[in-house]
Amino acid sequence: MVESKVKDKSLAAKGKLQIEWAESHMPVLMAIRERFIREKPLKGIRIAASLHVTKETAVLVKTLAAGGAEVYLAPSNPLSTQDDVAAALVEEGIHVYAWKGMNNREYYNAIGFAISSEPDITLDDGGDVAGTLHKLALGITDESVKYALEVAGNRDYVGLTRKILGGTEETTTGVIRFRAMEKDGKLMYPIIAVNDSYTKYLFDNRYGTGQSTWDGIIRATNLLIAGKVIVVAGYGWVGRGVAMRAKGLGARRVIVTEVNPIRALEAVFEGFEVMPMSEAAEVGDIFITATGDIRVITLNHMLKMKDGAVLANTGHFNVEIDVEALEKNAKSKREIRPYVVEYLLPNGRKIYLIAEGRLVNLSAAEGHPSEVMDMSFSNQALAAEYILRNKGKLTPRVYRLPQEIDEEIARLKLTAMGVRFDSLTEEQAKYISSWETGT
């Protein structure tokens, strides 16, 4: 029997059409699915996943199931689930516990649901399944653990965590968390940092987030970007994509705020203004955080902002904008449009927060286009297979997928796009692998 808790199972027919649309734009993952159907590399394996429940994720979990896995799917953000897709996946035999608009308790109940499957492999986007499992095994109790236990129940979590073959992590924020756990000696099973694959972060983070962030902002506000002053906090690959698309949409000025001097210098050389947030706060029209860190925009910054400034976050967790301080200090608030809340500040100015400061591209829009998730989720599928192929060989560390897997995904993508490219001649290959030849 398929265990599930979704908003409305009658939405399944609509969800299947959305999944079909995504499948038609994800040729690499579909090629992997064809092989998985033949070879069944995941036969008998139970996978617990915490991912954004979108049509693209559906293509991934259907591929894992085609490879023989039993998949338990929870969301990785309370606002990112596409309810029609969740319903369709239940009909496909996937165990799903997710709906759009979960509160904190419901969200961690869903994480507990995934954990209750006693998985062999975990798949994460933000680290909540593997992170909560580690907290349970290490005896760390907080509100999230308490809520997870309401569904997962009491178990031997030390034994459960130690028997897990490995996990994967999709996003920068999650990889940072697992590297910190490794450094502290707390990581109990190997994690594949999918985010570190070139075919993930160079494309998903830059082009996927760059486009989908603006899709979310424009859907929520219907504002014209041309002529506006845009402030992008953080110039990692996500920030680069957001800044690049802002320029392409006709922004009058694109300002970058950074704490890393090398990234700040890159932003300057790429034609963007760089200044501290304390200065940018006074001139920006739209602010977008993309740092992965906490309180990048504080109440003090908000009090400096223009009347009518718009705030959005495209980092994984809703900690980059100090929403708690805003809630405590605002004189009033009201939802003026779906996903847009107007706050009246003590100084009489109004600012507008999109999607509660959560991931704007998945909360107010549909997330990344299928074409870019094709590569990201191909990495996830092949990472799960890699963990099984290397059973017993991987120690509790954070690993990167081998370069040959990365390059194979790129080759498959180019072939699907009809793009031909060169290969080394025998002479060229010999030349670049030798040291004898000089000038």
TrEMBL record:
Species: Caldivirga maquilingensis (strain ATCC 700844 / DSM 13496 / JCM 10307 / IC-167)
InterPro entries: Adenosylhomocyst_ase-like_sf (IPR042172), Adenosylhomocysteinase-like (IPR000043), Ado_hCys_hydrolase_NAD-bd (IPR015878), NAD(P)-bd_dom_sf (IPR036291), S-Ado-L-homoCys_hydrolase_CS (IPR020082)
GO biological process, one term: S-adenosylmethionine cycle
Entry-linked NCBIfam families: ahcY (TIGR00936), PRK05476.2-3 (NF004005)
Subcellular location(s) of the protein: Cytoplasm
Keywords: Cytoplasm, Hydrolase, NAD, One-carbon metabolism
Cofactor binding description: Binds 1 NAD(+) per subunit.
Gene: ahcY
Protein family membership: Belongs to the adenosylhomocysteinase family.
The enzyme's E.C. designation: 3.13.2.1
UniProt pathway: Amino-acid biosynthesis; L-homocysteine biosynthesis; L-homocysteine from S-adenosyl-L-homocysteine: step 1/1
Main location: cytoplasm
Name used for this protein in its record: Adenosylhomocysteinase
Gene3D superfamilies: Adenosylhomocysteinase-like, NAD(P)-binding Rossmann-like Domain
Binding site for substrate: 54, 125, 170, 200, 204
Cofactors: NAD(+)
GO-annotated molecular function: adenosylhomocysteinase activity
Ranges where the S-adenosyl-L-homocysteine hydrolase NAD binding domain occurs: 205-367
Positions that bind NAD(+): 171-173, 205, 234-241, 258, 361, 368
Listed transmembrane segments: none
Reactions performed catalytically: S-adenosyl-L-homocysteine + H2O = L-homocysteine + adenosine
Known role: May play a key role in the regulation of the intracellular concentration of adenosylhomocysteine.
